[in-house]
Input
Amino acid sequence: MGPAFWGLLGAVPVTWLLYEASKKNATGDEPYLTQLMRKLDYLQEVNKERNILHAQLTEQAAADRILFAHSEVAPQRRRVSVSNLETINGYSPHNVQPGWGSINLEKLVAHVKQENEEQERKNVERMQRRLAEEVAKK
Output
């Protein structure tokens, strides 16, 4: 007698119990399973209230963010170093809105090159100072 037999043997009474629980009572009341489900209906109302409150709080947070973003004491602009300039203008040339086509990036390239040269110069000076300090120690 394999597991399929015992599974079938157990499924028959379980199916009968579910059928009996889903029938109306002799008094005409709702089935027992329906009564159990009705007891959990309040959870839907709780979830609706939570969702409404969450939506209101999210809207308020968005309004506050816009308010602070446009205030006089706006946070400092963050500096993003561009190490790969091709990524700025790298997008599909198809379906481009008017005015958003390829732009001239020569000023940006010159600015980034100047920053890189200045940083390289500072690094060289720092290395020379360290080398001079090490030579002086010996």
Observations:
- The two ends are 91 Å apart (CA to CA).
- The chain has a mean pLDDT of 81.
